[in-house]
Amino acid sequence: MAEVVLRDVEKRFGKIQALRGMTLEVRDGEFLVLLGPTGAGKTTTLRIVSGLEEPDRGDVFIDGVRMNGVAPRDRNCAFVFQNYILYPHLTVYDNLAFPLRSKLWRTEEGEIRKRIEHVARVLKIEHLLQRKPDKLSGGEQQRVALGRAMVRNPRIFLMDEPLSNLDAKLREEMRVELKSLQKNLGATFFFVTHDHVEAMTLGDRVAVLNQGVLQQVGTPEEVYEYPANVFVARFVGNPEMNFLEGFPEGGKLYLGDLALALDLEKVWKGREVLPSRVLVGIRPENILLGQGGTVGEVYLVEDLGADKIVRLRVGETLLRVRVPKEAEFSVGEKVPYLLVHEKLLFFDPITEKRLG
Ligand SMILES: Nc1ncnc2c1ncn2[C@@H]1O[C@H](COP(=O)(O)OP(=O)(O)OP(=O)(O)O)[C@@H](O)[C@H]1O
Ligand SMILES: [Mg+2]
């Protein structure tokens, strides 16, 4: 059964349409990541699921039960806010114990201690339990806020960028922890981020949102390999996908000013007839240097550590090409390049939807 369902949800704040016809299912036990740029409507979506905000139109279901108008505390979701607030006068331990001591979830102190110890171990905050929040770094506070949601053992976690204040290393560790936590609990995670790497590594599925409109829902692989439109293609992946103007003509595909004529039947497997002008996308790792019949000029080499990005100039076009870190290229060098035929993606230049 789908655990959380949003159906045709609309939300407006004054002149701003924050969500437009949002329909989305989070499956039972799934880690679903809602990904999008700032202002996309991600927080609004979670607030509507949690009951902190009511939709103007449309429905929210949890476990098949319509939730419109149901108070937040009766929705059995734990919410980790983007701007988490800890009680400043309470120690970390008491902050963690707080929900369990409330009337709603009253729990016996021995059990509270057991749960807090477990959660503190997972989150690596055991040494902080007796401190007050103002003696914690931002990342430590964030982990305490996470812990406060975890001690309740809710079935559904709603998380709004809970790792944003952590440094890169801790964030990576926490990703692993969150993922295994979710597996062990069998809980449903509805997780918001604007970081596509986080989305790809955490999500069983990723839902991409832009300007209140859901763009695509799919596995990380689907979203990466077959983006539904130009927005998703650009937003997922770093560095960005290359885009070129393509002109299919007489069985050939001409690409921008690349002086290439590719055999159309090798690059286009779709059934429909292509329009006379298309947008062609190709990821940086799908351009191979040192092969092929035409050459470009190395304009810049960026060392990313694990690999390098070569900016290759062809005519007026600057291509991004991912190469292994051992590869040596010098600026000004002329290098042959090859586009991996099967990896070209075609988009309608007007609607920006992927063709195929
Ligand atoms: N209470 C509010 N009053 C007025 N406008 C709001 C309110 N809450 C959200 N908005 C607007 O709705 C839109 C969506 O906001 P939301 O907070 O959902 O975005 P977000 O995707 O979470 O962005 P971010 O990544 O910056 O957190 C934005 O344009 C925002 O300014
Ligand atoms: Mg937000």
Number of helices: 9
CA(first)-CA(last) distance: 31 Å
Give helix % range.
10-25%
CATH topology descriptor of the largest domain: Rossmann fold
CATH H-level name of the largest domain... which superfamily?
Answer: P-loop containing nucleotide triphosphate hydrolases
Q: How many individual β-strands?
A: 20
**Ligand inventory:** adenosine-5'-triphosphate, magnesium ion
- Average pLDDT rating: 93
Low-confidence stretches: none
Shape: elongated
Query: Structural class of the helix and strand makeup?
Result: alpha+beta
Biggest sheet: strand arrangement: 6-7-8-3-9-10
Query: For the record, what CATH class of the largest domain applies?
Result: Alpha Beta
Using the CA coordinates, give the radius of gyration.
24 Å
Taken together, the total number of domains comes to 2
- Please give the CATH architecture of the largest domain: 3-Layer(aba) Sandwich
Order of SSEs: EEEHEEEHHHEHEHEEHHEEEHEEEEEEE
Protein name: ABC transporter ATP-binding protein
Keywords: ATP-binding, Nucleotide-binding, Transport
GO molecular function: ABC-type transporter activity; ATP binding; ATP hydrolysis activity
Domain ABC transporter: 4-236
